[in-house]
Design brief:
With 301 residues, the protein is of the alpha/beta class. The chain is 39% helix and 21% strand. The chain has one domain: TIM Barrel, CATH 3.20.20. Helix 3 packs across helix 5. It starts with a strand and ends with a helix.
């Protein structure tokens, strides 16, 4: 089982100071040296709540492309791209190019998006997000896999479109669809190589999502064993930041050995890839998680 790290590209939440690219690159290089199999970036333009200052975020794909050159072995992925931010045919071209730059280390994660304030701020359509994603996948998948598509839908068109030159992998980078709604899971079962769910805690929290994904596969006639289920795990350390983040309902916490035990639990479920989102995202937390990954992999040796 592969173990990944979600790397923060947003401003530091308590001070709203920018998290500089030099810092992001340093963390990713340390993750690569520390035994992580992958690093992941979120795709947002800003976070905005009523009465609160706007939190800035670096644009995902620009940073990802830079990290493709700054690293050598670690996989790089998006967790996940907001579909409506980019034309799907152009995104396929971007993904093939990034896969070339990284020498075949890209995992392309995509979802329907959810954060309405950034859509409003940047003039992007927020309506019919799952319908738009369904059309986008009918463009993305053939372009990534075969290099050609001819599609005309309600929201997107790609007529006699070629994705050339081809990248280092004949079938292109693997496609991950993230989300938890029934339509999203059916789209993942129909089109994706992997399906991501979150936010998980202890391994037993994955049981219900696994059942729903298996049901979605049955609905579209797919063998569930052919769809890789990945889990985004929320990791919280109250000793470093006491307030529990609202996005974590069942966070994982504990010592490095306890976290390593949870990683082994996910491996026992047959999960091919897990990713950690840490709260807070600090040096101490990163070092504890790195030690947990070291302990997990030492048991495999």
């Amino acid at each position: 089982m592969k173990v990944g790290l979600l790397v923060y590209t947003a401003n530091e939440t308590q001070t709203n100071t920018p998290r500089r690219y030099e810092t992001i690159r340093s963390i990713v290089r340390r993750a690569e040296a520390g035994g992580f199999d992958s690093v992941w970036l979120v795709d947002h333009f800003l976070y905005r709540d009523a009465g609160e200052p706007t939190i800035g975020v670096w644009e995902c794909w620009t940073v990802l492309a830079a990290l493709a050159e700054a690293t050598r072995q670690i996989e790089i992925g998006t967790l996940v791209l907001c579909n409506s931010f980019r034309n799907p045919a152009i995104l396929a071209k971007m993904a093939t190019t990034a896969d070339e730059v990284s020498q075949g280390r890209l995992i392309l994660g995509i979802g329907a998006g959810w954060n309405e304030p950034e859509y409003q701020a940047f003039g992007l359509p927020f309506d019919h997000r799952v319908d738009r994603l369904e059309e986008a996948l009918q463009i993305l998948v053939p372009l990534l896999r075969d290099g050609h598509v001819d599609f005309a839908g309600k929201y997107y068109q790609a007529r006699d479109c070629d994705d050339v030159p081809r990248g280092p992998r004949p079938a292109g980078p693997p496609l991950l669809v993230g989300g938890e709604g029934p339509r999203i899971l059916r789209l993942a079962a129909r089109y994706a190589d992997m399906c991501n769910v979150g936010y998980m805690g202890q391994p037993e929290t994955l049981a219900e999502p696994l059942a729903r994904i298996e049901a979605a596969c049955s609905e579209v006639g797919r063998d569930p064993a052919t769809l890789g289920v990945t889990a985004l795990i929320g990791l919280w350390f109250p000793e470093f930041r006491p307030e529990k983040p609202t996005f974590l309902q069942h966070p994982l916490t504990g010592t490095a050995r306890e976290i390593a035990a949870a990683i082994r639990g996910y491996a026992g479920l047959g999960v091919p890839h897990i990713m950690f989102q840490c709260w807070p995202f600090t040096v101490q937390v990163f070092e504890r998680l790195t030690e947990a990954v070291r302990l997990y992999k030492a048991d495999l040796a």
